[in-house]
Amino acid sequence: MDCHTNVTPLIVQDWQLSRHYQMEIGCDTCHQGDHSSAEDVDQLATITADTCGGCHAERLEQFSKGKHALSWASVQAMPTTHALPMALNAGMKGCTGCHKLGLKDEATIEQLKADGSEFGHASCDACHTRHTFSVKEAQTPQACQTCHMGFDHPQWEMWSSSKHGVRYLLMQNGTLPEGTPAPTCQTCHMVDGDHEVRTAWGFLAVRLPLPEDDPQWKADQITILQALGVLDPAGNPTARLDVVKAADVARLTKEDFDRERNKMIAVCSDCHSKNFAKAELEKADALIRDLDHLLAQAIREIAGLYQEGLLVKPESYSYAFPDLLTFHDAPTSIEQTLFEMHLKHRMRGFQGAFHANPDYALWYGWSEMVRDLQEIKEKAEEIRHRAAERSD
Fold it and tell me: Are 366 and 287 in contact (CB under 8 A)?
């Protein structure tokens, strides 16, 4: 404290506001190792989720089962991540700014530490900010805002402008009395503080088994899975499916899906009737089906251009489908439109429905996808027309 009160005084102040300080848990409890100056700071232990698990074993076990624990693994599996400027990745200004959250093996931690990267630090402090590590902070929806906002996952914007979020914010400014029922992110996704944090549809809103009772939806989902690279042209699993499994971004059995859906119905039933909750969630399922039909048509349009030899398929694409995981690295404007259709507008459509936000479900989701599909069809027709003119 004598040193850090002068060198980093606000870190000391942060710690003195913490429960750790009240319980006489000092710096060396977590930062084990010999250290007396800036020159030997590398002798201290790197803080990880396992460090926190020494005291918080139950929370670590829950966290380890959930999607946040796999956040680092999932971003490393995305081809586009490795093409980003180092200033975005190493500087925590891009995907890794949020996806630093997640469990890492010892080799990864040591390499990150050697590179001087912040990624080696505890996943827990993404929500329980150092060095206060406040439970109350992590229980507020603002703790989720940094990561869950923006282009492909604007959950903060959806929730805060939904009736749920509006009631919470009105309670915070005193318009509504304290204790007004107003669900936050944690109310629905971290019941009783459970750190597992999973959803029925996962991040990509795809699932197995495929819907056998709806042939059109099944065909559309197969097309989407092929464009995600997890099914080959014959509909067989690929090596990328193993990556999807490892990153836990989709439910791959009916039992797994039903378990997460039943958890959510139970949460909704605290305020609504069970029948109402089931019906609203099923409406959102149906919207996914309709959004999938738009997206699948667009994928097939571009795949058709590949097959006709009118659009050059990048060598990195494994099969005769556009690769939805290339994101902004897609090489042509028609493929860029597909990228936005999938990652921006489809996400907003189905996430808006589940977050009870009409504008996101309709205007930022469904409506935009209708326009995307029309644009892709017109661009495809222009490409075919130009090719016909050249052949004449």
Answer: yes
Confidence of residue 239 (pLDDT cuts 50, 70, 90): confident
Q: Which two tokens stand for residue 152?
A: 């492909």
**Which residue type occupies 183?**
P
From the list 153, 156, 242, the residue with the least C-alpha distance to 205 is: 153
42 to 5, 11, 116, 229, 352: CA distances (angstroms): 20, 18, 10, 41, 45
Which tokens in the block code for residue 232? Answer: 């080959």
Buried residues in 12-36 as b, exposed as e (16+ CB within 10 A): bebbeebebeeeeeebeebeeeebe
Spatial separation of the C-alpha atoms in residues 285 and 354, rounded to whole Å: 9
Output the pLDDT for position 315. 83
The CATH code belonging to domain 198-391 is: 1.20.850.10
User: What global pTM score does this model have?
Assistant: 0.91
In angstroms, what is the C-alpha Rg of the chain? 24
Q: Taking the domains of the chain in order of start, what are their residue ranges?
A: 4-139, 198-391
pLDDT tens-place string over residues 353-367? 999 999 999 999 999
Task: Please check whether residue 237 is in contact with residue 282, taking contact to mean a CB–CB distance below 8 angstroms.
Answer: no
At 266, list the tokens.
């139970």
Q: 63: exposed, middle or buried (C-beta count within 10 Å: 0-12, 13-18, 19+)?
A: buried
CB neighbour list of residue 236: distance below 8 Å, 6 or more residues apart: none
Question: Are the beta carbons of 336 and 356 closer than 8 angstroms?
Answer: no
SS3 category, 342: helix
CB-based contacts of 63: which residues, under 8 Å, 6+ apart?
A: 49, 69, 123, 124, 195, 196
pLDDT confidence of residue 380: 97
**What is the band of 120 on the pLDDT scale with cuts at 50, 70, 90?**
low
